[in-house]
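Quick log. Single chain, no ligands specified.
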Amino acid sequence: MVQLGLVGLGKMGFNMRERLRAAGHEVVGYDRAADVSDTASLADLVAALDAPRMVWVMVPAGDATSQTVLELRDLLSEGDLLIDGGNSRYTEDKVNAGLLGEKGIGYLDVGVSGGVWGKENGYGLMAGGSAEDIERAMPIFDSLRPEGPREEGFAHAGPVGAGHYAKMVHNGIEYGLMQAYAEGFELLEASDVIENVPAVIKAWQRGTVVRSWLLDLLVRALDEDPELDDLEGYVEDSGEGRWTLEEAINNAVPAPVISAALFARFASRQEDSAAMRAVAALRNQFGGHSVKKIVE
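-> predicted structure:
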């Protein structure tokens, strides 16, 4: 059993807390939403943990994460370990590690994939940091990842920054995969030959080379709304696709599929399309991301 402080109990953080508790770990959670929080403040969370402490931060990337890290830096002590499991940009990890290192606090960056389904299925984890800190947090990683061989759900990707870099590329690939399914959906819907689009897509779930969990989620979305007519084809991007393309440019790596998928999301904010309704539905299915419903 390991004791862990968990900061941020949103869609993923809340389910992570429940999965860890089910595995026998003691998890003390803090969130601004008092109805899900175990403590009234970050200070109370830190005080509730035995030294040396381990605290996992699961808040939105950017200013929210930076501010949380700074607050915890003042509350934690030498020998403690902070883990950033949000979707931070990998370039921010060395900054955070440096600030914490000045006080002798360890730092790991962990890319987490699994969305709202992670509580049941487990989370794919990509970690960056020292081997010593990785080993210390391994009981937590083993409880969060899917059952089966460790290497199929967890990777020590490299030094600080590697975990978020790996997750950035993962999300870039995700953009391309969703866009391909979405364009296929639109083509089937536009055809005057195909009479049952949901049935065709459902038939791809077994024995075909395009079967995947994302396809299963698209089938689930179509079961709920066969033509996705209840959704607007408006799709946000949370940053990782842009960062992936910037890295592709910096490293002279061609990434036409990911770039096209990102630009398609931009286009979705200008004009409604069946393809982007499918992408919106997929993001809602796997990650619980908000969608815009058509108001009649």
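The chain has a mean pLDDT of 93.
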